[in-house]
Design brief:
By secondary structure, the protein is mainly α. It has one domain (3-121): Rossmann fold (3-Layer(aba) Sandwich). 50% of the residues lie in helices and 11% in strands. It is built from 4 helices and 4 strands.
Length: 125
């Protein structure tokens, strides 16, 4: 399994929002969890490069042209997965449908709302 840099961003955003709302106990628990998660995936965090950003930009525009706004984050997650030939694992797999990719819910039971997407090798790989 791999962790997408966008997922790390989304988790950190959620933690910071909790801190701003003075939900410090929950924020602290999530921060500890995120620290462990990034330590576990330290060499498996997939980042952005020029090829991925070009692909994700095209995917987002194609989806917008079809009348759906997937948001930059989901377009980038799909771009990263496609660039590396990987499958997205998500608790909410249907959110990726407009981008023309099928995400897999198998193995998503351990995901939290904070980390709703991981990326894994394709079954055929």
């Amino acid at each position: 399994m791999f962790l997408c840099v966008v997922s790390v961003h989304e988790i950190e955003k959620g933690i910071t929002l909790l801190e701003q709302k003075a939900a410090t106990t929950k924020a602290s628990a999530l921060r500890n969890w995120l620290t462990g998660l990034t330590a576990t995936f330290t060499d498996k965090v997939l980042s952005l490069d020029a090829e991925t950003t070009v692909l994700s930009g095209r995917l987002e525009v194609q989806t917008l042209s079809g009348g759906t706004d997937p948001g930059m984050a989901d377009a980038v997650i799909v771009g990263i997965a496609q660039t590396h030939g990987l499958t997205i694992v998500s608790r909410n797999a249907t959110r990726f449908d407009p981008l023309g990719i099928s995400a897999d819910t198998r193995g998503s039971g351990s995901l939290t709302k904070a980390a709703s997407s991981l990326i894994r090798p394709n079954p055929s790989s």
